[in-house]
Specification:
Blueprint lengths: L3 E12 L6 E11 L3 E6 L5 H8 L7 E10 L2 E2 L5 H7 L4 E4 L3 H4 L6 H10 L6 H14 L5 H6 L7 H12 L6 E5 L7 H18 L2 E6 L2 H5 L4 E6 L2 E7 H6 L4 H8 L4
Parallel strand pairs: 3-8, 3-9, 6-7, 7-8
Antiparallel strand pairs: 1-2, 1-4, 4-5, 9-10
The structure holds adenosine-5'-triphosphate and magnesium ion.
């Protein structure tokens, strides 16, 4: 059996001001090394909150009320701000749900990817430049130099998404969290993105948490899927099994909802 890179055990998160409002409800989840785990659920089910908590970015309005998140042997919920900084971006890369919030509109794509690298590795300007172009190449960007010199608004949605992935993997993380990475893209680009994730998994041995409301899309890539509903994982298992024989009513609805 593969060892787990990430183990979430009995995690509960509630609102600070009204602790009876539970956002994440006793969630346990393991992400094996090199595996793709899908988290699928409707809007407001807690997917983004769960993803952010792995980065130690529990929103200020929320508080962890139970559980632990063990990543590479450390409980990320107990790390200091400084220790978190070392894990976030370097060992765990994240593609955030809001595509426009990922890049600052006033800096070029290349300088922003370079800055992410520089936060963790003291490279020279030339080395940074080469690394950025190599990353853009790796995520399938054609004309990497032009894209690196572009501002975020000058790029198409597909290119911006690839640039975001380049930034997320810039420091060679072992885990990538991708929150709705394809929801702003058309069907063809969605397929290209999924292919890119498949390659990154294969080439870099990357583990991926793929967050989406689209079970059909996720099950094309995920080894395992966890179905979330109102902060709980209501079903969990091999993607194919859930597609063929969903047990929970909510999972049945997701399968019936199509997009398959
Ligand atoms: N900063 C916040 N303060 C208070 N409540 C919040 C905050 N962020 C999220 N919530 C609430 O937490 C719940 C889970 O939200 P979350 O964003 O994790 O869901 P999601 O599954 O990612 O939804 P979506 O599919 O729409 O992205 C929702 O009920 C949401 O209203
Ligand atoms: Mg979300």
């Amino acid at each position: 059996m593969k060892t787990s890179l990430l183990t979430i055990r009995d995690l509960s998160i509630a609102l600070v001001d009204s602790p009876q409002r539970v956002i994440i409800d006793h969630v346990s989840l393991a992400v094996p090394q090199g595996a793709v785990v899908g988290i699928v659920g409707g809007s407001g089910s807690g997917k983004t909150t769960l993803g952010l908590s792995v980065l130690g970015l529990v929103p200020p309005a929320m508080r962890v009320s139970s559980g632990e998140i063990i990543f590479e042997g450390q409980n990320v919920l107990r790390l200091s701000a400084r220790e978190h900084g070392a894990v976030r971006g370097r060992r765990i890369g994240m593609i955030f749900q809001e595509p426009m919030s990922a890049f600052d509109p006033v800096f070029t794509i290349g300088s922003q990817i370079a800055e992410t690298i520089f936060a963790h590795e003291r490279l020279t300007r030339d080395e940074l430049g080469r690394r950025v172009l190599g990353l853009l190449d790796r995520v399938g960007v054609q004309g990497a130099e032009r894209v690196a010199r572009s501002y975020p608004h000058e790029l198409s949605g597909g290119l911006r998404q690839r640039a975001m992935i380049a930034q997320a993997i810039a420091c060679g993380p072992s885990l990538l969290i991708a929150d709705e990475p394809t929801s702003s893209l058309d069907v063809t680009l969605q397929a290209h993105m999924m292919e890119l994730f498949r390659q990154l998994k294969k080439d870099m041995g990357l583990s991926i948490i793929l967050i989406s409301h689209d079970l059909g899309m996720v099950s094309r890539l995920a080894d395992e899927v966890a179905i979330m509903c109102e902060g709980k994982i209501v079903e969990q298992g091999a993607a194919q099994d859930i597609m063929i024989k969903p047990n929970h009513t909510y999972a049945q609805k997701l399968v019936e909802a199509g997009g398959l």
